[in-house]
Amino acid sequence: MILLDNICKTYTSGGTETHALRGVSLSISNGDYIAVMGPSGCGKSTLLNILGCMDSSTSGTYVFDDVAVHELSYKQLHIFRKKHISFVFQNFALLNRYTVFENVELPLIAQGIHSTERKKKVTNTLEELGIAELRDKLPIHISGGQQQRTAIARALVSDHELILADEPTGALDSNTSKEIMDVFDIINKHGKTIMVVTHDLTVAKHAKRLLRMEDGLFLI
Ligand SMILES: Nc1ncnc2c1ncn2[C@@H]1O[C@H](COP(=O)(O)OP(=O)(O)OP(=O)(O)O)[C@@H](O)[C@H]1O
Ligand SMILES: [Mg+2]
To answer: What's the sign of the alpha-carbon dihedral 67, 72, 76, 82?
Structure first.
């Protein structure tokens, strides 16, 4: 269970202040599947980054299960994220020097998991996402949809409870988008909590709840 209460985020750069979030409150239960839509600049990525412990709010409270996330230091936020949260990005964010298998294996290495266990987990996840046969390919030698599947595999392999996706289909054609969203649906059926930011209503319709943002606030 996640509770955001009156979250504000103000960026200050070059003497000007931008109020990216102006008092966002939200509760997310385990297994929820939320889509967030809204015009460019309304604060969607800012919200996702705060939820994902990539950034902290200027004010407000964020409670994740029994942890007061808003009270964590920068270092503690990093540790918390590594334990509980996975991200999927529009540009896949794969490392091009590494194979599909190695990309998916990276978070497990970071967590200090033993190699036998890593191989088992990565193999299972690649099979689950239908990309087992691509394991030794480099990202530049596979399609955009296959790259995004790899990125989703990397997000899933750690078995985190919260998956955050910022425009995960933004670089994909509509057929491939549908395939990727079908993957998200299956992940959610397996009990993962998902929040997806998207500009595409077809994508948003996969979610259980659609929230609209404008100017740093949710529209009711
Ligand atoms: N690091 C930053 N420093 C200063 N201002 C920022 C920073 N990041 C975002 N902003 C500003 O905060 C506001 C919200 O940005 P955000 O990236 O959350 O929007 P968004 O809804 O994700 O937009 P898009 O749909 O274009 O991705 C914008 O006005 C943006 O210019
Ligand atoms: Mg954004």
So the answer is: positive
For residue 143, report the distance from its CA to the centre of ligand 1, in Å. 29
CATH number for the domain spanning 34: value is 3.40.50.300
Domain of 144?
2-218
* Separation of CA 39 and ligand 1 centre (Å): 11
Condensed to tens digits (0 to 9), the pLDDT of residues 99-149 reads 999 999 999 998 899 999 999 999 999 998 999 999 999 999 999 999 999
Q: Are 60 and 2 in contact (CB under 8 A)?
A: no
The protein residue whose alpha carbon is closest to atom 27 in ligand 1 is 40
- pTM of full prediction above 0.70: yes
| Ligand 1 atom 30 nearest Cα | 41
Bridge-partner residues for 162, per DSSP?
85, 193
* Ligand located closest to 16 CA: 1
Domain count, the chain: 1
Task: For the chain, give the longest Cα–Cα distance.
Answer: 53
Please name the residue whose Cα sits nearest to atom 28 of ligand 1: 41
Average pLDDT over residues 49-78: 96
